[in-house]
Design goal:
With about 150 residues, the chain is mainly α. It has helices at about 1-20, 45-60, 70-95, 95-120, 125-150. It has five helices and no strands.
């Protein structure tokens, strides 16, 4: 099952990567970004680690499939994967940071709800989920700053 969670997670990453590939080198450099925007090289390694952590967290929750909240928590996990991939499509594919901001706010809200559920089912899963929640918190602020600076 861990392999299945990794496969699903990296499939969402692949969709996001496909949507990002061209615009990250053409359109994205033309945007005004805040001074605290991370260098481009950091995003790949950070997302790779986050995708692994979120997959392991989901797998750990799945191990508690006798828990009454597991099915709901894992359903939300798959919904968030869709919103995660959609963000890249909106931001880079459609080159629409404003729509991407709406998506990432919804995504962050869902990630927070998942973190609470995962933590209640398996405390280690909750800890594994936390870096993703924190990174998306940062990404939400960065997305908002880009919208503001490029209005």
């Amino acid at each position: 099952m861990l392999a299945a969670f990794l496969l699903a997670t990296f499939a969402a990453a692949g969709i996001g990567g496909y949507a990002t590939a061209e615009s990250v080198n053409t359109w994205y450099p033309t945007l005004i970004k805040p001074s605290w925007n991370p260098p481009a090289w950091i995003f790949g390694p950070v997302w790779t680690v986050l995708y692994i952590l979120m997959s392991v967290a989901a797998w750990r929750v799945w191990l508690h499939r006798d828990h009454p909240a597991t099915n709901r928590a894992l359903a939300l996990f798959f919904v968030q994967l869709s919103l995660n991939a959609l963000w890249s499509v909106l931001f880079f594919g459609l080159q629409n940071p404003s729509l991407a901001l709406i998506d990432v706010i919804i995504l962050w809200t869902l990630l927070f709800a998942i973190w609470r559920r995962f933590r209640a089912i398996d405390s280690i899963a909750g800890w594994l989920w936390l870096p993703y929640l924190l990174w998306v918190s940062f990404a939400t602020v960065l997305n908002a700053a880009i919208v503001w600076l490029n209005r």
